[in-house]
Amino acid sequence: MRFLELNGRAPDAAEIQRLASINYGHFTSMQVRDRGVRGLALHFARLADGNEEFFGWRPGLDDEHRLRQLILHALGDRADASVRVSYVFGADLDGPPDVVVAVADPASDEPAAPQRVRIDPKFRREWPEHKHAATMGLWRAQRLAAAAGFDDALSVGPDGLVREGTTWNVAFLKGDEVVWPQAPMLKGVTMVLLQIAMTMQGVPWTIRPVPASELPDFTGAVAVNSRTVRQELASIDDLKYPAGDKLAAIMAETWASVPFDAL
């Protein structure tokens, strides 16, 4: 199931052509369950920051209400779904941006098999702190990883510090402590919610620079994004991590404590 609305209605042919030909904008992705979303305020804050950065436009006080209504309208009678909310150029390029809400089937609650990841030192997202439409680099990194026999790619910067995966944040386990890399990267909503929940649940965690040379010192690694909180990484390059690592269990238990916000 896939469905898309532009400003609360189906786009016409000219608007579809514009959406397909002008790749400029930013977005957030969320999982809707029983018409609720974890961290809804963080998603709205991300969109507001993106509007200021990429369009020089600060939404009004009623914009969150408008976004809720647009999401609910696109959902229709669906209770569970994957939803992507994007701001893109409007017909008047100097005016406020348009809102695109794309709805698809909900992601599985079960992660894929443990993934084999390779370090791609050339992969770095532009404007890394924002979730934007300039995604060619990450798809190229994924394609090159697949061609080399891997499942995905991990960015390591010129400073030798681990950053992020193509579409995910990464977390490691060292002893009993969860370690999040500190580097130029996207602060994923799921990552931030997990960090808050870990603090509330008393799970030891830290965020600090992680040099690639430290990767052998960790006992587990997981990928985290809006679709999964416990995607185990079986290996990074030739370095293998144990299957069934307890880090995935920590993530799952912590995530279960994060409440849903009603749309």
TrEMBL record:
Keywords: Aminotransferase, Transferase. InterPro entries: Aminotrans_IV (IPR001544), Aminotransferase-like (IPR036038), BCAT-like_C (IPR043132). One of its GO terms (molecular function) is transaminase activity. The keyword Zinc does not apply. It comes from the Bacteria. The keyword Ribosomal protein does not apply. This is Aminotransferase class IV. It comes from Paractinoplanes lichenicola.
